């Protein structure tokens, strides 16, 4: 070797007689490199320590089966990145983060599983200025051999939800209602054996629900709140001793009895609902006694007084207020006949129709979706049902097997239209409305802990978190938290 060659080796840190190799960290073992490119073929692992100025990288027929997010952050100047003909079934989200100069990506020849894990890739491809060779799906079977670029991201169902247990509230309850007072969400429980309406609020220090106030209400079946500015009213419908209206004049005061409600009419209340008629708040109380009648009570001065008696002698078990065709309606379920629909006309409710094919219905609850009005009908024996309003009548849409059900309640939580079918003898079932089909699909069972004779459900959003309350007649009230899961992550 000439003197000039020896001098160059010495300057490069290579001793005389040693073979020259690229500077450490510039071309990994098993790769061949030039100034701007690297080709790694047959490597058992992902090579590392490439030069940060690398422009072209090819990893071909390697033993790599998965990559980590951000694997190429140290080579931000890449223009071409080939991962063709490997054993990659999926790619991690953010794999190409920081590669702003990419012009071509080759992913062909990999056995991609085209499930939710590739959704991010399908959404990323249209957003970059690089051409992407994607290749075909290896699975699942329904998508095998289909080219990735032919897949429609909108067809992927990659968002899931879960209701997990959060807290238990002692004492059984027949009803639960959520309301907002002075900008803070609250919940009120009707606890007949404890003889009270229990109001709960959020404890920001302990990050759980705590008791704020209770009002005495022996044998209570329903505690229905109404907020009018700074005033809070609570109707306590009781089986014995008479129903009462309680009031809180302002936020710094406590609830106190205001009025005995229709003592000669409300003999055996079973349900109470709030509705607005001609701009005024009203309560309707369903009465289940043989000699009683469901009563509409509307505000008149400081209290609420009977406006109309409905459906006498029919032993009503449930009332549901809803709007159809832009007008207030009232649906009454009873032990003696099919549910009857009333409409508000001339300052009073008039019978409009009954609901066919709906025998032995204990309770009804409605919800709206995509401009349609749906009805959930609870049956203790037989199948509970879903019906849809067609402009003149509720028509059967779906039947769901139920045993020992007293509640089939729809709830809109975040973006999800749910319906919960309670049971006295089995796990309560949560269903979710599938928008494409317009039908309820099974989502999950509630529990553990299992609900013991559930009677009502309500949801509340508190501190950015969503909760579901389940009032149980033969067990404590259970609180579940609503979680959203991204299956594409």
TrEMBL record:
Pfam families in UniProt: EPTP, LRR_8
Signal peptide: 1-19
Gene3D superfamilies in the record: Ribonuclease Inhibitor
InterPro entries from the UniProt entry: Cys-rich_flank_reg_C (IPR000483), EAR (IPR009039), EPTP (IPR005492), Leu-rich_rpt (IPR001611), LGI_related (IPR051295), LRR_dom_sf (IPR032675)
Keywords of this entry: Glycoprotein, Leucine-rich repeat, Repeat, Signal
Domain LRRCT intervals: 110-159
Repeat region (EAR), residues: 162-204, 208-250, 254-301, 303-346, 348-391, 393-435, 439-484
SUPFAM superfamilies xref list: L domain-like
Record bears the keyword Plastid: no
Source domain of life: Eukaryota
PANTHER family reported in the protein's UniProt record: LEUCINE-RICH REPEAT LGI FAMILY MEMBER 4, LEUCINE-RICH REPEAT-CONTAINING PROTEIN
Protein known as: Leucine-rich repeat LGI family member 4 isoform X2
Organism: Balaenoptera acutorostrata
